[in-house]
Request: fold
Amino acid sequence: MITDLILIESINKSLSERFRVIDGRPIYRIVWSADQLETRIGKMREHYGDIFLREYWSTDKRPKYWYFKNPCWLLEKLVFIKGVAALKEIVAELPECANGSYEPIFPFVDKNFKALPVSLPVVEIVVWKLQNPTKPLTPSQLDDLRVKLDDEEVEYFEEELGKDERAPLFVADNAVFSSTNQLKFKQQRGSGFFSNKEYTEK
Reply:
């Protein structure tokens, strides 16, 4: 499946406008894997049929994604090597990556490595996750989070169960603390002190 080039150009334009480095290069871009070449320094082996002729060092443009089974669209990100020693080691093999290198982030392929069409929502989700990374929680942080969630759950159910209850101060029979006036009122009510009194509206 080949995605319409107009869609690819539109996505790349949007990515370039929103995410780019000081020199104007886009941080993210969609490319066709088979079109990508990279300058690589390394040993080349020359054969004539099955006969090995020679081995020599060369600096050549070579297919960048030679290991992909089928050509496909993929999302790349511009990355920079940290550390002088690491940069020196990489540049010895890839001389053009001294000022950053585009690396594959998300190939549009299915489980059988067959090419899929580019999906704008997928691009947006992948880029958003890369721009807003979340740190994985440590075991102690996970334990603290579990305790907090348990406490919140207990508190919620206590509130729900207590919604229709009367406050303990109004439940004289079940009250732990009662004032002397409450006890006196209860005794007088039981002895018939208020039994013959009725309220008459004036």
